[in-house]
Amino acid sequence: WILNENNWYFRDGSPEVCGNASGARPCPTGYSCLQHIGDNPNFGYTSFDNLLWSMLTTFQLITLDYWENVYNMIVATGGPMHVIFFTIVVFFGSFYLINLMLAVVAMSYEEEAEAVNLV
Question: In what way does this protein cross or attach to the membrane (predicted)?
Fold first, then answer.
């Protein structure tokens, strides 16, 4: 019964995410929230199930590539306390770490160009 998708609540063609945590989006009337049922969102690529998927999802957040989708799903299932994680990752990760990485790459190119000009 649980694995039968006819019993799931769909919105806009995909299963609706909800949670039992305090502040999470409640399930619609007549439905129950169950953990570990069905595939992870975005064809299984978006999850924090293990270290590698967590790193991929965090990279998506740092690059600001449709990060609001991950944010909305986490807040819907886990509650508003997770906003702290997203604030830290988005501000420090995207605005600080990405710029730091770009600065290092630019300096490396500049040093290489100077080395070529000296030869």
Answer: Multi-pass membrane protein
